[in-house]
Design goal:
The complex is a heterodimer of chains A (157) and B (771). Chain A has helices spanning 22-28, 84-92, 101-114, 120-126, 138-155; strands at 2-7, 10-15, 47-50, 53-56, 69-71. Chain A is of the alpha+beta class. Chain A has two domains: 2-75, Ubiquitin-like (UB roll) (Roll), CATH 3.10.20.30; 84-155, [2Fe-2S]-binding domain (DNA polymerase, domain 1, Orthogonal Bundle). Chain B is of the alpha+beta class and 771 residues long. Chain B contains 20 helices and 28 strands. In chain B, helix 9 packs parallel to helix 10, helix 10 packs parallel to helix 19 and helix 18 crosses helix 19 (736-748). Chain B is globular. The two termini of chain B are 48 Å apart. In chain B, 62% of the residues are buried. The interface between A and B is large, with 52 and 55 residues.
């Protein structure tokens, strides 16, 4: 079957297999930042924003996203530069191998859209489904808290 | 301790040189690359733990639409090799075939199918008919060593197996003095036996390989590997190619922790490409990553300690049996490290013994895993030390302080136990363990928390600690080299064969080069881990990159600096020996010259000549990093649940080249160690099938599962290391298991010896103890 969707602001049409998941579709369309770490919704490496909410793309059928808008980590950077979630991750040492990073950043983006001033516990809860084997989470959590502060300051001038 | 020099780029938490590509999601991993005409390879693995293959019928698979190639033992090289991915000569036995006529664990390779799509390859693999003659599985150390046990490696062509008819891969022994006599003379003794579990590395990126032929017909392998040069050598031998006809490239790697030292997929993808002429991708599924990749060696270790009434150790005896699973990869060397990375820590004891055996079972294959045997050994040693401290009536921190090795001292174990052979005598040239223990205890509030009563309610609190050492590379075995060339804008390209597996080592090496060359890290372009482009490096294992590869980079940079200063001396009409590079300029008596000017001149004259140098480094010792670990736990005596409520690690790794990344190494290792202590275990059915091959049932720590972690980097300077650095990648993982077990003893008075410490196990032990 054929579906149409928006990926990072670009309208795409795709012929899909009935059983195909969004993760495989996005990777096939060139969005390889969507990582396949487990293919069954355990690790969070494939998280993207689907109509504004973070989902594990491996758990959503491609057939379900006809007409939807999807954002991947590739959309975060703007002409002004890296998104605060991106540069705070770099400055805080929150990125080691970087394989889980795209999914973790999109999960954090969802969190901050809904809770601009999260506590550390709230950040940790939001990341509960985003496994990282390299960092022990201390630095990713700190980076997200710093990004939240920067985004709030930017909003309030 | 030597006075630490002042640095400008080293010691600064620079951003990762590859960080921007990673946070913007660029296609930098091997699995992100797609080539025209690419085949997808599916593996068929054994559903049984132990069987001979009577027959295998691939006709239906070969006829399946889209299938290009089917590989089995009928049409693949029969020579034996090891997947361990070590340097030559390899210390692991040659007991593996690409595809064998016998399977030895559930998950062992049986066949591979390459097809136009992954689904076609999987469908075809399911059409392969195999007739197995099932044999009795061997599912434990005791079963492997039992009289009349089935012989797992009964083939006549395996090499370097100690006693295949009795399932013994290797035996290791080291003896100094007389442990029995030392124990008899001791005022106080302690003994413990621990048994560790099957654990998995679980990098977020499963193993993935993409092979193809370049326009000249050379084989190119893009691989998620820690050891590109070993992959090239091993694959070339297996597939009967000259080494120079193979190119191996490691792109960004999604975590390794040892499991990507193993050469598990490269040979299959490469053979598909050679047979078909087409690119081939082979990627483990998460389930295959659990079942068919590698694990941490389960071990049973007995430690006996004897000390005088003054707390001075008289004797340490360690007996260990290691389960290497179906194949002997890293069996000998991991078990050697169980002794060599623990016993030298307490070098005051005159009587030392290590006795080890490595056995085969028909369970998944163990391999290199962060900590490399030291993790298991230090669990046994450090829980025994805790017991000894109590029997002596001495504080556990104080007992370590009285006995641990110091700068200028040695241990006979360094010479007795090496990497599967005799080791190398070594004098400790930097050790700040005393400061780690004292300052760590102070910051943690050890004395106050230790004096607190655990409470009498359901939740009991306790604190425990442990001390550790690891190594920095393998003395007189590892070799790293680096080439640095100057560009015409005054920047440099660093060519290094070393392998950044996500740790940030490319950044560390760039910082070392930048420091020597008087430039910022942005002036260093890193080209790494490509066997066509970069000089040899043994690879990323044994905590080697900062110390070994870093030293090679430092030496190469010094040679380049000398060449630059010679040119600058001519330009400035000054003696080069008095010149130096500061912020990209060389200041002469009257005027200065910039690196950009020298770079341009080196290309276009006058007297143009490429400024470049290569240096190699072979370490003569393996200076240990040291660590003191402190844990606080809360034990729920009604449910058996252990919660780690605080964790502190004070670490001596010499100069931290990049402090934030150094902390990150320790934090990540502690997280992995806490998982190993509390939740992580591969479970097996009575037929040897893994029951929890996914990240839902094999529980690695998530963000909500971990305590606050404090990492203290203690001032230290290693005179033989680059800019005073030692390595730091592994040591952190050794701390949680013993520190948590000791804290649990403090809280509720039971000694836990069989990780993971799940609520059920702890509850049972609490009931037995009448708590």
């Amino acid at each position: 079957m054929k579906i149409a969707l928006t990926v990072d602001g670009v309208r795409r049409e795709a012929e899909i297999d009935p059983g195909e998941c969004v993760m495989d579709l996005l990777r096939r369309l060139g969005s390889t930042s969507v990582k396949n770490g487990c293919d069954r919704g355990d690790c969070g490496s494939c998280a993207v924003l689907l109509d504004g909410r973070a989902v594990n793309a491996c758990l959503v059928f491609a057939a379900q996203v006809d007409g939807s808008e999807i954002r991947t980590v590739a959309s975060l950077e703007s002409p002004a530069g890296l998104h605060p979630l991106q540069f705070t991750a770099l400055d805080a040492g929150a990125v080691q191998c970087g394989f889980c990073t795209p999914g973790m950043l999109m999960t954090a983006l969802d969190l901050l859209a809904n809770q601009p001033d999260p506590t550390e516990a709230e950040v940790r809860r939001a990341l509960a489904g985003s496994y990282c084997r390299c960092t022990g989470y201390t630095k990713p959590v700190a980076a997200i808290l710093t990004a939240a502060t920067l985004l709030r300051e930017a909003r309030h001038g | 301790m030597a006075e630490s020099p002042k640095f400008t780029v080293v010691g600064v938490s620079e951003r990762k040189v590859d960080g921007r590509a990673l946070v913007t999601g660029k296609p930098v991993f091997a699995g992100d690359v797609e080539l025209p005409g690419m085949l997808h390879v599916a593996l068929l693995t054994s559903p049984v733990a132990h069987a001979r293959i009577r027959s295998i019928d691939t006709a239906a698979a070969e006829a399946h639409p889209g299938v290009a190639c089917v590989l089995t033992h009928h049409n693949t090289p029969a020579m034996r090799y090891t997947t361990a991915g070590q340097g030559a000569p390899e210390p692991s036995p040659y007991d593996t075939r690409m595809f064998d006529t016998k399977v030895r664990f559930v998950g062992d390779r049986v066949a591979a199918v390459a097809a136009d799509t992954l689904s076609a390859a999987r469908e075809a693999a399911a059409l392969i008919a195999i007739d197995f003659e099932e044999l009795t599985p061997v599912l434990s150390i005791d079963a492997a060593l039992a009289t009349g046990a089935p012989v797992i490696h009964d083939e006549d062509d395996c090499l370097d197996v100690w006693d295949a008819p009795h399932n013994v891969v290797s035996v290791i022994g080291a003896k100094v003095g007389d442990v029995a006599a030392g124990l008899a003379e001791s005022a106080v003794t302690a003994e413990t036996t621990i048994e560790t579990q099957y654990a998995q590395h679980a990098p977020l990126e499963p193993h993935v390989v993409l092979s193809h032929l370049d326009p000249d017909g050379r084989l190119v392998i893009l691989a998620s590997t820690q050891v590109p040069f070993h992959v090239r050598r091993i694959v070339a031998r297996l597939l009967d190619l000259p080494i120079h006809r193979v190119r191996v490239i490691k792109p960004r790697l999604g975590g390794g922790f040892g499991v990507k030292q193993e050469v598990l997929l490269e040979d299959v993808a490469a053979l598909v490409t050679l047979r078909t002429g087409r690119p081939a991708r082979l990627e483990y599924t998460r389930e295959q990553e659990f079942v068919s990749a590698r694990t941490r060696h389960p071990m049973r270790i007995r430690v006996r300690l004897g000390a005088g009434a003054d707390g001075m150790l008289q004797a340490i005896g360690m007996d260990a049996i290691s389960n290497t699973g179906a194949y002997g990869a890293h069996g000998l060397t991991v078990l050697s490290n169980t002794g060599s990375k623990t016993l030298p820590l307490y070098n005051k004891a005159p009587h030392l013994a290590f006795d080890g055996r490595v056995v085969y079972t028909t369970l998944p294959v163990a391999g290199a895993y962060r900590g490399y045997g030291g993790t298991q050994g230090s669990f046994a040693l450090e829980t025994a030390m805790d017991d000894l401290a109590e029997r002596l009536g001495i504080d556990p921190v104080e007992l370590r302080l009285r006995n641990h090795i110091r700068t200028g001292e040695t241990s006979p174990i360094f010479e007795e136990l090496g990497e599967g052979r005799k080791g190398t005598p070594q004098v400790i040239t930097s050790c700040a363990l005393e400061e780690c223990l004292r300052r760590g205890a102070e910051r943690f509030g050890w004395a106050e928390r230790r004096a607190r009563t655990p409470g009498a309610g359901a939740l009991r609190r306790g604190v425990g600690m442990s001390a550790h050492m690891q190594g920095s590379g393998i003395a007189l075995v590892d070799m790293a080299s680096a080439t640095i060339s100057m560009n015409d804008d005054g920047s440099f390209t660093l060519f290094t064969g070393s392998t950044d597996l996500g740790t940030g080592s490319d950044t560390v090496l760039a910082q070392i080069a930048a420091e020597v060359l008087g430039v910022g890290v942005e002036a260093i372009v890193v080209v790494a881990a490509d066997t066509d482009l970069t000089p040899f490096d043994t690879g990323a294992y044994a905590s080697s990159t900062t110390y070994v590869s870093g030293k090679a980079v430092e030496l190469a940079a010094m040679r380049v600096r000398d060449q630059i200063l010679a040119v600058a001396g001519r330009i400035l009409e000054s003696d080069p020996t008095g010149l130096g590079i500061v912020e990209g300029h060389i200041e002469g008596p009257q005027r200065s010259v910039s690196l950009a000017d020298i770079g341009k001149r080196s290309y276009y004259g006058p007297d143009p000549a490429q400024i470049a140098a290569t240096a190699s480094f072979v370490p003569e010792s393996s200076p240990p990093p040291f660590m003191a670990a402190f844990a606080e736990v809360e034990v729920d005596v009604e449910t058996g649940l252990i919660r780690v409520t605080d964790f502190l690690a004070a670490v001596d790794c010499g100069t931290p080249i990049n402090p934030i990344m150094t902390e990150g190494q320790v934090e990540g290792a502690i997280a992995n160690g806490i998982g190993y202590a509390l939740t992580e275990e591969m479970q097996f059915t009575v037929r040897g099938r893994n029951r929890n091959p996914d990240l839902a049932r094999y529980k690695i720590p998530g963000a909500v599962d971990l305590p606050p972690m404090t990492v203290m980097l203690i001032d230290s300077y290693e005179p033989t290391g680059p800019m005073g650095a030692k390595s730091v990648a592994e040591i952190g993982i050794n701390g949680p298991l013993p520190a948590i077990a000791n804290a649990v003893y403090h809280a509720v008075g039971i000694r836990l010896t069989r990780p993971p410490f799940t609520p059920e196990k702890v509850w049972r032990r609490l009931r037995e103890a009448g708590v």
